[in-house]
Amino acid sequence: MDKSKLLDRAASTAEERLLLARILDKLEQAEQRSIPACTDFLSPQEQALAESLLHLTGTDPARWAAFGGYDGAERRALVFLPDWQQPEDAEFPFRYLRAAYRPQYKLTHRDLLGSLMGEGIVREKVGDLLVGEDSCDLVVLDGVADYLLQNWTQAGRARLTVTEVGAHELHIPELRCEEVRDTVQTLRLDAVASTGFKLARGKTAALIESGKVQLNWRECDKPDRLLREGDTVSARGYGKFVLAEVGGVTKKGRTGILLKRYL
Q1: Residue 85: helix, strand or coil by DSSP?
Q2: What pTM value is reported for the model?
Q3: Cβ(100)–Cβ(64) below 8 Å
């Protein structure tokens, strides 16, 4: 299948097409020049798109790897490998920074991301922002690290002191989530998401049909889509949850579920 047809199948918008074209370019670079080729950081949704594309191309899973600088990272880059390199030996052009500030400023993820954008840093060059009480650790591509070390000095009213740290020194906040057990008549998306989002089932179905719900980082507007254990569901303004466990069926024919809802 040629490149244009691949993009026709994998992309549904012009923005997705441009993203996937860049990913194909990186894949071709690794294959033709026999050197590793790394993408920018991708959001979970973009990673899902990329994986769908790579499945269509028939790319050997051993020829690429994904990493965000630490285990469990949400934003990750893909590196495509020449045939002489194994995934466990993949190297990513990452550097690790810590922006320290006084805790009384109570900086948020939005404050820090906004200040980065104000410095002209595009989102694709920065991985996760690990925000703490008095500092924010972040993973960045090598090309922007020196600029940030020299020029990123303020977020809102807070003065920043930016230093480079080792990957093993990252302060990784503990993910906060609550477990929710329930029984549902069906594993349809609207039924499970009604519990996950704490909404009436009718309102949940309307939210899904409006295109505002993502299933495994891809938009899903089908309320009757059946979920499987491990699926992630999210909606802007309503949060995110994982269907962590599907249990047995009760005497009344309802299925037990365990959700992990992120706080």
Answers
A1: coil
A2: 0.81
A3: no
